[in-house]
User: Which sequence fits this backbone?
C-alpha cells in the first residue's frame, strides 16, 4: 500500500470507527515501523486525525487512597504504591529507582529516565523511611549474594561502559530488584533487573476490588491523586508541576479542573 491507501485507512479509523486519537496514533506508528522494517519509504501521509478528547482524570479522595493502600499486600508492592502516591511517581519511574536515588536524610527522591528524558527531584514521605530502610537492608543481602556469585545489576549499555564497576556496587542496585537473574537481550549480559511492572499493576487492581472502590483506578491514578491532593492543600501549581515533571504548565493545570469544583473553593449555590 502507498501513502494514499494508508491515509484512507487512518481516516477510516477516525470517521467510521471513531477511535481515540491515541489508538489512531498507535496504528500509524505500527505502520511506519513495518515500512521501516521493510526498508520502504512511505513519504508524507495526509489523513484525517481523530479528535483528542479532554478527559477528566479519575479522582480518588484521600480516604479512598488510604483504603486502597491498606488493602495492598504487606510487601514490596505496598511500598511501591505508597511511593507512587506520596511522591507522584509513574509506574516505570518507581520500578527504575536505584538505591543511590533515595535520600532518607533530605527526604527526596531523584527520578531518572522520566517521560521526556528529563531528570527531576521529588519529595519523600517521612512515614516511609522505616519501610525504605528495611527494603534497602533486603537489597543489601541480595547484593552480597550476587557479588559472591559474580553477578551484578544491569545498566543501560552507555552507563555500563562509562561506569564499568557500577553493576557490582550497591548504590546502583534497583530498590526493587527482581527475584530472578535475567539476560539483557541488547547486550547479552547476565544480571539482576527490577521487578516486572505487571506485578504492581495486578496488586493495585486486586486492592481496588478488595477496598470496594467504585471508581476506575490504577497505579497511575495514585500519581494523579498526588497532584490533586497537593493542589487542594494550597500548594502552588508551579511547585506541583516541578514535582510531577511536567514540561508544560497546561498539563498540570488539568488537575485544577477537579480541584476548583471539589467544594473546597467553589460552593454550590444551593449551599448559600
Assistant:
Amino acid at each position: 500500500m502507498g501513502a494514499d491507501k494508508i491515509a484512507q485507512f487512518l481516516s477510516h479509523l477516525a470517521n467510521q470507527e471513531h477511535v481515540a486519537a491515541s489508538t489512531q496514533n498507535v496504528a500509524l506508528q505500527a505502520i511506519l515501523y513495518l515500512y521501516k522494517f521493510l526498508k520502504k519509504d512511505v513519504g508524507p501521509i495526509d489523513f484525517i486525525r481523530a479528535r483528542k478528547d479532554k478527559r477528566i482524570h479519575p479522582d480518588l479522595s484521600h480516604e479512598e487512597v488510604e483504603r486502597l493502600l491498606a488493602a495492598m499486600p504487606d510487601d514490596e508492592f505496598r511500598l511501591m504504591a505508597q511511593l507512587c502516591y506520596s511522591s507522584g511517581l509513574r509506574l516505570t519511574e518507581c520500578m527504575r529507582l536505584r538505591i543511590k536515588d533515595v535520600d532518607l536524610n533530605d527526604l527526596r527522591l531523584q527520578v531518572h529516565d522520566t517521560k521526556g528524558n528529563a531528570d527531576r527531584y521529588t519529595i519523600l514521605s517521612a512515614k516511609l523511611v522505616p519501610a525504605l530502610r528495611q527494603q534497602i537492608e533486603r537489597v543489601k543481602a541480595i547484593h552480597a549474594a550476587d557479588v559472591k556469585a559474580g553477578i551484578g545489576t544491569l545498566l543501560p549499555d552507555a552507563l555500563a561502559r562509562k561506569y564499568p564497576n557500577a553493576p557490582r556496587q550497591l548504590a546502583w542496585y534497583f530498590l526493587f530488584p527482581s527475584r530472578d537473574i535475567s539476560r539483557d537481550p541488547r547486550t547479552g549480559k547476565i544480571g539482576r533487573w527490577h521487578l516486572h511492572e505487571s506485578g504492581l499493576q495486578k496488586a493495585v487492581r486486586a486492592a481496588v476490588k478488595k477496598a470496594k472502590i467504585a471508581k476506575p483506578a490504577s497505579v497511575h491514578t495514585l500519581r494523579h491523586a498526588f497532584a490533586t491532593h497537593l493542589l487542594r492543600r494550597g500548594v502552588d501549581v508551579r511547585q506541583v508541576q516541578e514535582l510531577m515533571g511536567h514540561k508544560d504548565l497546561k498539563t498540570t493545570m488539568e488537575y485544577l479542573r477537579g480541584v476548583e469544583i471539589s467544594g473546597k473553593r467553589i460552593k454550590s449555590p444551593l449551599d448559600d
